[in-house]
Amino acid sequence: ASCVQYRLVVRDANTLQILQLYTCLDQIQYMEWSSDSLFILCAMYKRGIVQVWSLEQPDWHCKIDEGSAGLVASCWSPDGRHILNTTEFHLRITVWSLCTKSVSYIKYPKACQQGIAFTKDGRYMAVAERRDCKDFISIFVCSDWQLLRHFDAETQDLFGIEWAPNGCVLAAWDTCLEYKILLYSLDGRLLSTYQAYEWSLGIKSISWSPSSQFLAIGSYDEKVRILNHVTWKKITEFEHPATIVNTRTIVYKEVEKSPSAETERLSFPPTRALASSLFSTQSKYDISQMPVSLQYVKPVADRANPKMGIGMLAFSADNCFLATKNDNIPNAVWIWDIQKLKLVVVLEQLCAIQSFQWDPRQPRLALCTGNSKVYLWSPAGCVSVQVPVEGDFQIVSLSWHSSGDSMVLRSKDNFCVCYLEREEV
Fold this sequence. Notes:
CATH superfamily of the domain at 251-259 and 269-424: YVTN repeat-like/Quinoprotein amine dehydrogenase
CATH topology of the domain at 251-259 and 269-424: Methylamine Dehydrogenase, Chain H
Oligomer: single chain
Largest sheet: 6 strands, mixed
Mean pLDDT: 92
């Protein structure tokens, strides 16, 4: 599905044929599929309205108007039959049921980066709350929205919460001014607190491994710390230096190569699409000789949100690899072997990394750098692929299909779908 101002377009993922076209009341600012792909939510925050569309029954429609309370966020519950709307100034969360048309209210939600978290099985929801100048966490049962546990979080200014994939442990971390991560059980017991250092900018990003055995914490000191799920103590930390000297690490460096074809050699005038792919600058990967010096950017000290520290990190679906990005070295992606706890590969790009994401089925990483190329890495090697489109197509984000056979590449104004051929076993 894609949004074009006030229109919602639903296409077939394989043929890109338009299946449904819906017209909303205003410009769509957010869109989300329900978990079973039967409904689509379209939020128009300016008007305080959410519209829901059904794929099975195109004539059925639903409009939720928050009225004077306003609307700043909207999302589906895991069952795909309830919608959670956060009102302006985070006064409350309204839970609307599509089945019974009933409404439930959750008071005092906190305005933070990640204030709502659902367990992977969809049974429980944790909400970060702020009341009387203190942080709290409430855990609700999603089947009837009854409160299961309510406890105060031992944080100065709670910044985010996230469940482990097995749903047994909830991680809650403090603002970047205080390095602190707290781990709670489902019944609200504090299992452990981890604090790496004091009096400096703290946690920037976190990621659970799919097996729930590891918690990776990226911080402003350019390091990733890995906690284990038995003692919640640090088992290792990964540094991101500007110079790589270890000869066991492979550094793939992107290099530009001149266009492969010349106009004189062509016996026919090329089409516009062919010409754009023939004469655009191609790139490939070379393996660098050690030691390798990466491009290091010193952050501007007097600006908010300094470009420093570990801004992105993600585990592969098989738990074998961890990909990280150090914002001080914006052109590099670091890939770590989790079984050996060692750095195996660094991809050094010509431009800054915009986004990366693991294939949901196998250890294959896709990344983009704001140009018209998509880059893929797997243990077998890496490749640079030119997107054959006319005009300027700058890929700013990408998203894998759940099958791992295709991915959506998005630019500011357009999108395209990249299909990958599956090897016959």
